[in-house]
Amino acid sequence: MPPRILVFAGSIRTGAFSGKLAACAAHELAQQGAEVTRIDLGDYLLPLMNEDLERDEGIPQNALRLARQIAGHHGFLVATPEYNHSIPPLLKNALDWVSRVKRDGERPLRPFENKVAALCSSSVGQFAGIRAINHLRAVLVACGVEVTSVQCSVGHGGEAFEEDGTLKDERSRKTLTKVAQSLIFHARTVAALETN
């Protein structure tokens, strides 16, 4: 059985470099045999994380929907942009809300439990989102996610992609291939645990 991999970007801006990179990653994962689901965080918009809101109104439905998506896959790949040397608020807020999900109705739900993630980043500058990807890694590790060591960062995002959305740079393409290989390898281990 092929591992199930969820892919999403940390930005919902039209033409976002992270969205283009997520599309490249989804294609590469599928080429290597993964069962890929691509989602858009714009379909899971959430209020700012607030424990008073959680207490008074409960977990927002979109947080529960996103938690179900993550829980339903063996691993996930996030492509993040860099905002002020860190991850964007949209992505951080989504992860914070999902980390609060403990139940789905009557049954327990731990969306990040036994999950593996791979990370990619992109930016307009030469640093390619490296600072953001390091912050994202720290957040996911804090949530209990195993994060693969192989990562792909694409700089000068405005010139990095062909008109068809593929990466121009051969080095970036090869790195993305390695990211996909590593994620699939680790996700297969998760899948094997699921069947035992």
From TrEMBL:
Name of one Pfam family that matches: FMN_red
Chain ranges passing through the membrane: none
The NADPH-dependent FMN reductase-like domain is annotated at: 3-156
Taxonomically, which superkingdom?
Bacteria
Protein name, UniProt field: NAD(P)H-dependent oxidoreductase
